[in-house]
Specification:
Shape: elongated
Radius of gyration: 37 Å
Strand content: over 45%
Largest sheet: 5 strands, mixed
Number of strands: 52
CATH topology of one domain: Jelly Rolls
CATH architecture of one domain: Sandwich
Distance between the termini: 73 Å
Helix content: under 10%
Strand order of the largest sheet: 1-3-8-5-6
Structural class: mainly beta
Oligomer: single chain
């Protein structure tokens, strides 16, 4: 039994405190109206005091080093156990035990301990837009500690995100990288989504990406010399992470032409002619759409509808296939002797017609009415046209190939607008999405090219690049754009985030990267490793995560994980 605690500071019972609980029993009441216990903490700790086994009412009070200021107290009624739990800085403190009233007298057991507690962690799921940089705030990740300050709570990364980077002050942290709770509170920590980059092909032949839809891709593989090449088309299912070759009985060479969802239109050669096939990803089967003496030369897909061109060796014809009715319609107009389909979107097909005087003109076929509207009537040569909904774009040149122009057709107003900008003498429309057009402009034949974005609603073009490299627009999806830049040594892929108005270089290597296609934030392109071309795919998984531990610098360590939901767009 410990000696009786004194009732003055100078004769207070000195109690050696530790991490493990230690205690003693004593009597209070009658002539003994006050017990004082002195404890000393060598470092900031959480003090735990418990008074139990009471036969009458008694109270607890925690005093400062001078015994004057009350820091904490417990004054429950009757025989209830009393307790005090509070964090304290290093120093000397006094614990006071007093009976509840002059009539109360009781034995008591006092148990004391002091030590360090592990940080308490609050971490919830974080939502981040694919390809964006998202601030990690203390509403997402917060550690609190009874003994240590925020700046003393240190996080250490134990696993890294697969589709992005954890950045401190804009610098990526590696495995074992550290940051503090103060960094989070002050807005210095973020998650920068970059997606996972995968090389889908790795062989000794040339592969070229031909289309993208969501996380699905198509590409063509080229084997042999140019005049004796065998072409093999492939469909890549992004969800299953599986590639299948598209083929059919009797087909010796083929080429993927377009993709919509998991459906692919492709052309297969049986040596004699080229025929149109439709592959359905849901069933994994191909259906032959054409069967005749004509050879298909190109094909397009939108929903269940197809458009293609075919030739008998002399004249070309353009066709539209209605996937709902299974009906095929030839696209023609008065005076047209040769025609080629250039694209299909929803209820429109854009096609090119050549008349008896060899003038090349453009037409827009309306599936609902079965009527083709002539878009151009001039001496220019129209080429590289595309359609999106009721709008269209195309490029034109003079017969001497000295003048190059680009145009946007507004299907609502039937107005045609030339795409240009001050100082631009050569223009090339690259791709269209609704009323937005990505186009490439050149000041003169000897200068570098730059990328522009035309807003069809506002009727204005914005210059996205302004540098010494040659930049060529590739694709647009939502408000995001990808293009290829050539710096005189190699080509690289650049990604423009239309929401944040920022540009990121996706590739920075000695390989030749070009031909980027994009849907949402999924991007595919071709890369040349010096030997042949391969297909590279940057995609965003719907989730990501990273794990860590947080320590208070003493003995407290708490593990945690941040789960991220990645939204497309």
């Amino acid at each position: 039994m410990a000696k009786d605690p004194g009732d003055k500071l100078k004769n207070a019972l000195k109690f050696n405190i530790s991490n493990s609980s230690r205690g003693f029993s004593n009597q209070i009441g009658g002539s003994d109206r006050l017990d004082l216990i002195r404890v000393t903490l060598n470092q900031r700790s959480t003090l735990n005091v418990a008074m139990t086994k009471l036969k009458a009412n008694a109270n607890l009070r925690l005093l400062d080093s001078r015994g004057k200021k009350t820091l904490a107290q417990s004054r429950l009624q009757g025989k209830q156990n009393e307790s005090i739990v509070t964090p304290l800085d290093a120093g000397t403190y006094y614990i006071e035990v007093k009976p509840g009233s002059v009539r109360d007298s009781t034995r008591y057991t006092l148990t004391l301990s002091a030590g360090n507690t592990a940080p308490k962690l609050t971490n919830v799921s974080l939502s981040s837009r694919a390809g964006a940089t998202t601030l990690i705030t203390n509403s997402t990740l917060k550690a609190t500690d009874s003994e240590q300050q925020f700046r003393e709570l240190v996080y250490t990364l134990t696993s890294l995100p697969q589709g992005g980077k954890v950045q401190l002050n804009g610098v990526a942290l590696g495995l074992g990288g550290r940051f503090t709770q103060a960094d989070i509170d002050d807005g210095r920590l973020n998650y920068a989504g970059s997606g996972s980059i995968t090389r889908l092909t790795d062989n000794s032949t040339n592969d070229a990406v031909a289309g993208i839809s969501g996380s699905n891709l198509i590409w063509n593989n080229f084997e042999g010399l140019q005049n004796q090449q065998t072409i093999k088309p492939f469909f890549y299912d992004g969800q299953a992470n599986k590639a299948v070759q598209l083929t059919a009985p009797g087909i010796v060479s083929a080429g993927a032409q377009g993709i919509f969802g998991s459906d692919v239109v492709w052309i297969g050669s049986n040596v004699t002619t080229n025929q149109i096939f439709l592959y359905k990803g849901a069933t994994g089967t191909s259906t032959q759409i054409t069967n005749g003496n004509r050879s298909a030369t190109n094909a397009f897909i939108s929903g269940s509808n197809l458009a293609w061109s075919s030739t008998d060796g002399q004249l070309s014809k353009a066709f539209f296939y209605n996937g709902q009715t299974g009906k095929t319609t030839e696209l023609t107009a008065p005076g047209i002797t040769s025609a080629s389909s250039l694209g299909v979107s929803d209820s429109r097909v854009i096609w090119q017609g050549v008349n008896s005087t060899n003038n090349v003109e453009l037409f827009l076929f309306d599936i609902s009415t079965g009527v083709s509207r002539q878009l151009t009537n001039d001496a220019l040569i129209e080429y590289s046209a595309a359609v999106y909904g009721i709008n269209a774009i195309w490029n034109s040149s003079t017969a001497d190939i000295q003048t190059f122009k680009s145009f946007f057709y507004n299907g609502q107003t039937n107005q045609i607008t030339e795409l240009t900008s001050p100082g631009v003498t050569i223009a090339l429309a690259n791709t269209i999405l609704e009323s937005n057009v990505v186009w490439t402009g050149i000041a003169d034949i000897n200068s570098g090219s730059e990328v522009f974005l035309y807003d069809g609603l506002a009727g204005t073009s914005t210059r996205l690049t302004n540098n010494d490299t040659n930049d060529v627009g590739n694709h647009i999806s939502g408000s995001n754009i990808v293009w290829t830049g050539y710096n005189g040594k190699d080509t690289d892929i650049f990604f423009y985030d239309g929401t944040t108005k920022t540009t990121v270089e996706l590739t920075n290597n000695t390989e030749g990267d070009a031909g980027a296609l994009m849907d949402g934030s999924n991007i595919a392109w071709n890369t040349n490793d010096g030997t042949d071309n391969e297909v590279v795919f940057r995609r965003f998984a719907p989730t990501d995560q990273f794990s860590f531990t947080v320590t208070d610098g003493a003995s407290g360590v708490t593990p945690g994980t941040i789960n991220l939901t990645i939204t497309q767009g």
